[in-house]
Amino acid sequence: xxxxxxxxxxxxxxxxxxxxxxxxxxxxxxxxxxxxxxxxxxxxxxxxxxxxxxxxxxxxxxxxxxxxxxxxxxxxxxxxxxxxxxxxxxxxxxxxxxxxxxxxxxxxxxxxx
Amino acid sequence: xxxxxxxxxxxxxxxxxxxxxxxxxxxxxxxxxxxxxxxxxxxxxxxxxxxxxxxxxxxxxxxxxxxxxxxxxxxxxxxxxxxxxxxxxxxxxxxxxxxxxxxxxxxxxxxxxx
Lengths: 113, 114
Hints:
The complex is a heterodimer. By secondary structure, chain A is mainly β. Chain A has strands at 3-7, 10-14, 19-26, 32-38, 44-50, 56-58, 64-68, 73-78, 87-94, 102-103, 107-112. In chain A, the strands form 2 sheets. In chain A, strands 2, 4, 5, 9, 10 and 11 form a 6-stranded mixed β-sheet that branches. A 5-stranded antiparallel β-sheet of chain A has the order 1-3-8-7-6, with no helix packed on it. By secondary structure, chain B is an all-beta fold. Chain B has strands at 4-7, 10-13, 19-25, 31-37, 43-51, 54-57, 64-66, 76-78, 87-94, 104-105, 109-113. The N and C termini of chain B lie far apart (35 Å). At the A-B interface, strand 4, strand 5, strand 9 and strand 10 of A face strand 4, strand 5 and strand 10 of B.
């Protein structure tokens, strides 16, 4: 079964520092990959998605992610963290032939002033 | 504005009681989904539907039931058979379903057991 692993349940960075949230997927066939953000007690908002058109995907709020097939990774980055980036981030996959999203367990991003 | 609405925002269930969570969308989407979120567990798929009057079980369907009588609506019933119902429930929809489609999420309903 397709799975997604997010390394680090909590990541803390200083305001203005680089944000790096890690996501690895398990599949021999590149799936469709998504990053979502969730603010407290709210639904999920799509940040970006990979659909094989380009390996470097740009999303909203200055986030981007790079698909690396050789490493089965889809890490999320942002050059300079802002206080408003503090939230829960989820990596998710829809496997080939599948339908519902399979989510990682999430990474809570903490921004230190 | 187009979007997905879920009601109520908070719901309390007594022992042995069935409760129904509402999900409505005005995005003209064919596919709708229900997910359950537990702390530190990510989201898990309960049920999904691609068309009216048809739905499929997800990974954790036991203790839940759904209906899809209208394209816009996909209510979820948490039955008394669900022994651990306390969670945050999220509804989502996408255009036609399938691997490339983006799923858009509602604001969620938090279910608590009295």
